[in-house]
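During the reporting period the student researcher (J.K.) took over the structure-prediction task from the postdoctoral fellow and processed the backlog of single-chain submissions. One of the processed entries is reproduced below for the supervisory committee.
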Amino acid sequence: MEAARSHVVRRPRTTTTTSFSYSVSVSTRIQIRSPAKRRRRHASTKPRSPVLRHCTSCCTQVPNWGAKRARTCSATNTNGCWRDWANLTDGPAGLIAERVLAYDVVDYIRFRAVCCPWRRCSSEPCSRSGLDRRFHPWRWIMLREKLAVLDRHRFLSTSTGECIQVDIPELRDHELLAVTPEGLLVLVHDRKHIRLLNPLTHQLTKLPPLTTLIPPENHNKLSRGNSQFYIDFGAWGSGIANEDSTVVLSFSRRLMIGMAKPGDDHWTLLKYQCGTPEALMFAGRFYCVSVDGLMVLETGVDQPPRLELAAEMHMRVSSYSDDVHLVNNCAELMLVHSLCRRLGAQGELVRCYDAYRVDLDTKTLLPAKSLGGGAGRAVFMGTYCSLSVSLDVFPYGSICADTFYLSSGVGVEATSYHLADGSGEGIRKYKSSLVARPHTLVDCLSSSVTL
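J.K. obtained the following structure tokens:
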């Protein structure tokens, strides 16, 4: 009996089993138990971290497509020794925080929310620059459908399929102009003051007024009476330049670009010749299509900002019937040319899509019949922006590989075009109002590229 008692390990009388999951790598997940209730009460007196809610029930059910369940690990190791995770020294805890942040800011927010000691050993996101890429939710997209709770929005991870809900009260007195590739929201207050909002950390970066970019004779277009405001000033293609200090504001419908840094009192204006409204921030550089070809924004200390040729476009692009889309396809720049062709014996006019990989070294376009990826990729394209996703993340059969899904607006189902054989489906309006839309994965991803 005494020998048996010697092997008994006493555990704390009170434990809390709330689990917290963070990613050490893309394929590895660790589950850690939070400290005891008394520590939680102590931590609750500190400033709260942003609240991230898992999607459980709402008007449209979006499951955690592809998100793997975290493997359960006990706070007790195989030798029966209890580990006090809350009292990790700053060194190991700080190193874990850095690894978590390097993968995803959402997991970093959860890490800091576990307890006060972990929060002390990790940097407060809002204490850093709003342009610090480490804290940007670039793995997440904001879904567009409205929820029952005011100011609450859903975000979907394109790398794991997880879905969360976030309250964004800043949208009460701001209007949304665009979403950047970094996951930041381009907002305007009183149709004058430009802001960049990180929707997960709620850090708001102030930028120069819009009136310093728009000529005085066009200030009347900023009034509340302008019903075309979102068309004139949709800021798709905006983002952060590669030096992480300059914001590029793109008004492609007006063929103008503004550049400024936080703290500047005005925007630097650059206009370009007529082209398509499509623009894209790719690898920290601004690209757009003009009559001269695919152009890239170049900036230098001793030279004014200018557009230079990034790739020649040898195909003919009609400004009346054709469209050109720029796509960040898993860190590869692609150009998609939408045009009308007459096919079949009857010469029926059909919308077709030609895809090209952009070789920035040789400044050429290479025809492509596949979007690549292990299980394949699909691209969702709106009028002004695009989204490339991997089929590895989402359930089999929910989306098709090497397919363009084209969204033309709210209330219309996405059309599809299969790149390999040129087949597709036409436009259909939602036929029934009995089921809340969107309710499929294609619906949700298509709405994310529609403002």
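The committee noted the following: Helices lie at 2-6, 37-43, 90-103, 105-113, 116-120, 229-232, 441-447.
J.K. will present the remaining backlog at the next meeting.
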